[in-house]
């Protein structure tokens, strides 16, 4: 509930924070596995998918997938939605522009699919409201990237 309250205070009612992936260099990757964990001529990496909040607390971590996978491939292997699929997701109810919603969402970057549980920025905002939304969404979404840097 605390995450939902903070999300609403920050202008994102129904938000349960940000999700993203990062590649972690694997210095001691076995030679036989390097092809599976390396992109092209880059060094081998292991991927961490995380959901992080404004206070840099990591609420979900899925670690160990090969570095050749992108965020979408990892999402399809991730247990991040297990609670929703098993009916254990928190009950939410909020209203935006006169529409009532009952599903929480994550703030994401542009690679994530167009699912109801993901809110992305506006790629090329033109109107003032769209520009404000894009700036705020990108600022709040980057909290997960800040958590990676800690």
Automatic annotation (TrEMBL):
PANTHER family: OS07G0546750 PROTEIN, OS12G0169200 PROTEIN. It comes from the Eukaryota. This is Nuclease HARBI1. Pfam families: Plant_tran (PF04827). It comes from Noccaea caerulescens (Alpine penny-cress). InterPro entries: Harbinger_derived_prot (IPR006912).
